[in-house]
Amino acid sequence: MINLDHAATTPLDPLVRAAMLDWLDDAGGYGNPASDHALGRRARAAVECARAQVATLLAAQPEEIIWTSGATESNNLAIKGALEFRGLERAHLVTTRIEHKAVIDTCRYLETRGVRVSWLDPTSDGRIGVEQVLAALRPDTALVSLMWVNNEIGTVNPIRELAPLLRERGVLLHVDAVQAAGKLPIDLAEVPVDLLSLSAHKFHGPKGIGALFVRKRPRARLAPQMHGGGHEQGMRSGTLATHQIVGMGQAAALAAQRLEVDAPRMKAFCARLYAQLGTLPDVWRNGAADGAAPHILNLSFGGIEGESLRARLPDLAVSSGSACSSATREPSYVLRALGRDDRLAGASLRFSPGRTTTEAEIDQAAREVRAAVELLRGLAPADA
After folding, report:
1. Do 226 and 271 sit in the same domain of this protein?
2. One of 49, 107, 270, 324 is an active-site residue; which one?
């Protein structure tokens, strides 16, 4: 199978697997990092090494990295934690209609608790503008939550430009950077983001481990969502999974080392794929073509039915939207927010090459998609 669904998850890098295995055997790698004896201290040293590796990927400080189970938990901790620490009464937050479900559903939950939410609409190419965010601010705005890269269409939001403007206004900024880490340079020493979410399995690390960057100066304060033991500076209690954390640290180190190689390569693959598929009639590119993330290409194919298209591609791993929303079997809410009707949104494919993708796989995928589209259009013309 040709895997062009790396935006959903990435295969575990062999070097990451090797690093994790050292902490899964009986040779002293099973200590609790919170224990004050030799086994515990050894595990704690590994955890802190990994914390520094993740911090380096972000140009942050190690003490600003809080371990979580993944980006969903990081997003919940950031948004709920920031609002609850401030106080939910008369709180206001700003987000968009095309965020990841882990952000959207968290904000909807907070609406049931009395928080007022401003939901921003994207432009037709999936952009959220700086002035658009600033215009939504109110005197009681506590938080803006905005993803760095949209997970379905690859649009890059203006985080670098927006962050200092929100800092001037005393508004916290949370960024879901799941699709940005390892694909775009992130420098939190220069960009004053307050809270930032990561997930290891999006950059060749293990599933079940993530991190939340929590800025120390000026300090972003959070109410914990899990209590018991006071781990992770009191923000996230629970025994740390050393092997998972070591894996995320190794994956972050590799992502930092390979960024200048991987990103241009993935961008070239997306361009090559679009050059072959974009010549088909009635094909729509979803999201901005210029300034997009290097690893995501989303196309809609007019005149066919989406389920039939995907059924014709058994040897091609692609998606019709976010893997976290696929269980609904509904057309992508992101594409509908761009103005695509349900039929066109349903007949969309997200292609996301990765570190191990080859040029030959790109060309084979293009041939299979072209053949499927042409066959289905022949069977059921668009005006039928």
Report:
1. no
2. 324
Which residues have C-beta within 8 Å of that of residue 103, sequence separation ≥ 6? 75, 79, 95, 145, 147, 176
- Give Rg (Cα) of the chain: 21
Q: Say what percent of the chain tops pLDDT 90.
A: 92
* 148 and 221 share one domain: yes
The pair phi, psi for residue 370, each rounded to 5°, is: -60, -45
* Tens-place pLDDT, residues 161-170: 999 999 999 9
Would you call 324 a catalytic residue per the annotation?
A: yes
Q: Are strands 283-286 and 92-96 parallel, antiparallel or unpaired?
A: unpaired
Domain housing 198: 14-254
For residues 317-333, average pLDDT: 71
Burial 127-146 (b: 16+ CB within 10 A, else e): bbebebbeebbeeebbbbbb
CA–CA separation, 57 vs 69, rounded Å? Answer: 19
Measured at the alpha carbon of residue 301, what is the angle toward residues 298 and 307, in degrees to the nearest 5? 95
Distance CA 212, CA 174 (A): 10
